[in-house]
Design goal:
Number of strands of chain A: 5
Strand order of the largest sheet of chain A: 2-1-3-4-5
Function (chains A, B): Catalyzes the deamination of adenosine to inosine at the wobble position 34 of tRNA(Arg2).
Number of helices of chain A: 6
Helix content of chain A: 40-55%
Catalytic activity (chains A, B): adenosine(34) in tRNA + H2O + H(+) = inosine(34) in tRNA + NH4(+)
Structural class of chain A: alpha/beta
Oligomer: homodimer
Enzyme class (chains A, B): hydrolase
Shape of chain A: globular
Distance between the termini of chain A: 45 Å
EC number (chains A, B): 3.5.4.33
Strand content of chain A: 15-25%
Largest interface: A-B, 28 and 28 residues
Keywords (chains A, B): Hydrolase, Metal-binding, tRNA processing, Zinc
Chain lengths: 149, 149
């Protein structure tokens, strides 16, 4: 059955962004932001290309979404991201008061939960959606890197 | 005695940035980044003007410093900032592996320590330098805001 606007549909869009990062030789993490069933922002990790630790997928998507909406609060938006946000991105999401965050792979090393960071108390969280697809792409990237060095 | 390159000298430069934010009607927080006794980046809060929760003083300074250095790691740099970083900025500083962070006013509400965030274990931290000057400017801003509303 076609379900064009469910979580899986949108997470696949985030995975498309992660694939773009992979093709640019960046750690493959992708994010999109959805408002009223419409993708209003997308981003993928660009830390290497931009030489900038702040250029995570989520940060770019948050900035782009606020730009689209003309306001900095994302209280009606959902972020779909292929990896659990780090504390920096969790902090940005906290300030944005985003309605909901859906992430795929857990990050046991640098995820915001293990680092001690917090999302906004109003933000709803769903985890593990398409986790295998997201982790497989990350693993493939790190294996490729290891073989090149 | 003239001590042009001590912490107080550089924190005053960060306070100048905070003053610029104040004049633009932004929450007055300013930051500079120093490498080899040279200011290589500056930033002040622009969240209102840019409609962007990520536009904190530190974030802009981190991006500008990496741009100046042509590399994303700030292992030889010191950040001077007029307010204790939030978890987003602490997260960005963590990724940058910055050598040292000096902040003025403590933030008991949204500072990274109360929020549970972490700087990099290698980063040295100094707090409370010119705290009164930094807090006075912040208080002045919030009093002005309250009187306008």
């Amino acid at each position: 059955m076609l379900t064009p606007f469910d979580d899986t549909y949108f997470m696949k869009k985030a995975l498309d962004q992660a694939q773009e990062a992979y093709e640019r030789d960046e750690i493959p993490v992708g994010a999109i932001i959805v408002s009223n069933n419409k993708v209003i922002a997308r981003g993928h990790n660009l830390t290497e290309m931009l030489n900038d630790v702040t250029a995570h997928a989520e940060m770019q998507a948050i900035t782009a979404a606020a730009n689209f909406l003309g306001g900095k609060y994302l209280t009606n938006c959902t972020l779909y991201v292929t990896l659990e946000p780090c504390q920096m991105c969790a902090g940005a999401l906290y300030w944005s008061q985003i309605y909901r965050v859906v992430f795929a792979a857990r990050d046991e090393q640098r995820g915001y939960r293990v680092m001690g960071g917090k999302l906004h108390p109003k933000t709803k969280i769903t985890e593990g959606l398409l986790e295998i697809e997201a982790s497989t792409l990350l693993k493939k990237f790190f294996i490729k890197k290891r073989n090149l060095n």
